[in-house]
Amino acid sequence: MANWEFFCTFVSILFPHATYTYEVAERRRILPISVMTIIKEIRGVAIQRFLPSGMDLMAWLDNIEAKRHKAVIRYQKDNPCDSTCMVMSVDDVDVCFVNADDKRFVKPLIEQSGCEECEADFLEVYRPENGTPILRYTVVVDLEDVEKIEPGEEWSNWDYNGPQLLSIGKINNAEHYANAIRKAIARGTDGICDATARLINEFVEATLIDMSIETTKLYDDLVFLLETRQRSVWREYIEILQHASTVRRKDCRRKAFIENWWPEFLEGEAVNRLCQKFAAEIAREGKMLGEPVIAQYLEELNITLRRLPYDLYMYVDSLKDLWSVVCYTHIPREKFHKLLSALALRDRLQMASSGKMPLIVNNLTVNKKTEMNFQNGSNATILAS
Q1: Percent of the chain with pLDDT over 90
Q2: In sequence order, which residues have a C-beta less than 8 Å from that of residue 131 and are 6 or more positions away?
Q3: What's the chain's average pLDDT?
Q4: Computed from CA positions of residues 155, 160, 161, 166, in that sequence, does the dihedral angle turn out positive or negative?
Q5: Which of 85, 150, 73 is nearest to 112 (CA)?
Q6: Mean pLDDT of 92-107
Q7: 6-34 pLDDT, tens per residue?
Q8: What is the number of helices (H) and of strands (E) in the chain?
Q9: Helix axes 194-207, 213-227, angle to 10 degrees
Q10: Pair 380, 367: CB distance under 8 Å
């Protein structure tokens, strides 16, 4: 705690009128620290989409870097996919989008400005060896204002009361990994080791499909804690987390999700147990699990999904498109879990109705040969491994 207390003393000199609470993970209690405002890095992404015709990207970035002008951040309200989308403009020219994870830090500044925009100070143009460039700007933000924002407010009006998944991959381990990383960060430079790198990679793996606001905050908190340390020493870990937080929304990640993760998930143990739970509820109601019952419940599921906020029902038959939109809605993890449960049960009911896959699997271990048959459109029955 000595290093952290030294940091707090240093920052309190810079910000004497402030208050900020820091959760000490290993003690699970809140310590009052005299810091109210922080300088938050805001990342500008998707730069290539704004590149003027005929201009070289690196030359354009060199020009932005040479000027070091402030950026103006505002909403791009006519964006067809995300009405909360924010863009950065330099010298009245749009240059990039604000990374989705950073938007909640900018929102209170825009709301308080009175002109629906705020300014950000230039930090650097980041050109990684692999990957796309990022424009880095900073804003001074009051964390109390950030915490007042209720993420995903529209989700409070949607609910799903049907059978739910017991687990979704490694999502439930995210908090465990994040707490272990916090402990490593608290050890200062002693925490920089192969074990810390492994924890970060395990955290990233556990959260790649988790679009919930809670996971977004975990990324925010870990990056912020690392940025308060010696930046150059922790830079590699910061970049890993920032990249992973962004790549969750990338087209390649959505494609991998649709083509690989989701089909395996539908045929895996978690969804098979969900289907067994559904069948047990039907039996308790004294009904036979036949085509009429499946058709009735499919209609009930569709009614539930039609009530989704942000017009998400338009995308439920195209998961890639759904994944492109849902991550911008600040969905709470509880609702994210319910949404995946409803979608998984809906897909399995549809597969059972069309004869592609039985709803009930007696042996929850599915052999690879049979999985390939299903993926190739066969009506084969699941065999015991």
Answers
A1: 30
A2: 243
A3: 78
A4: negative
A5: 73
A6: 89
A7: 444 444 444 433 333 333 233 223 333 33
A8: 15, 8
A9: 160
A10: no
Please give the structure tokens belonging to residue 376: 């190739």
DSSP 8-class letter at 123:
E
- Smallest CA-to-CA distance from 326 within 152, 106, 149, 96 is with 152
pLDDT at 260: 76
* DSSP H helical ranges for 68-149: 103-113, 143-148
For 43-95, how does the pLDDT look when each residue is reduced to its tens digit (9 = 90+)?
898 898 899 888 899 999 999 999 999 999 999 988 877 778 899 999 999 99
Map out the domains of the chain as residue ranges.
Answer: 1-35, 41-149, 172-208+212-247, 251-375
Nearest Cα residue to 249 out of 199, 210, 213, 203: 210
**Which two three-digit tokens encode residue 291?**
């085509």
Check residue 318 and give its pLDDT. Answer: 83
pLDDT at 272 over 80: yes
What pLDDT is recorded for position 38?
77
Per the DSSP assignment, residues forming a β-bridge with 24 are 29
Output phi, psi for 251, to 5 deg: -55, -40
Indicate the class that CATH gives domain 41-149. Answer: alpha beta
CA 96 – CA 61 distance, rounded (Å): 11
Distance, CA of 214 to CA of 175 (rounded, Å): 9
Give the count of beta carbons closer than 10 Å to the beta carbon of residue 318: 11
Q: How far apart are CA 38 and CA 141, in angstroms?
A: 6
Question: How many CB atoms sit inside 10 A of residue 179's CB?
Answer: 17
Please determine, for residue 339, whether its predicted confidence score (pLDDT) is greater than 80: yes
- Contact between 199 and 240 under an 8 Å Cβ cutoff? The reply is no
Task: Round to whole Å and give the CA distance between 133 and 136.
Answer: 10
Buried b (16+ CB within 10 A) or exposed e, 53-78: eeeeeeebbeebeeeeebbbbbbeee
Question: Which tens digits make up the pLDDT trace of 222-239?
Answer: 888 887 777 778 888 888
Do residues 164 and 341 lie in contact, with contact meaning Cβ atoms separated by under 8 Å? Answer: yes
Cα–Cα distance list, 377 to 268, 334, 354, 380 (Å):
17, 33, 11, 9
- Nearest CA to 335 out of 215, 166, 158, 174 is that of 158
Can you give the length of the chain in residues?
385
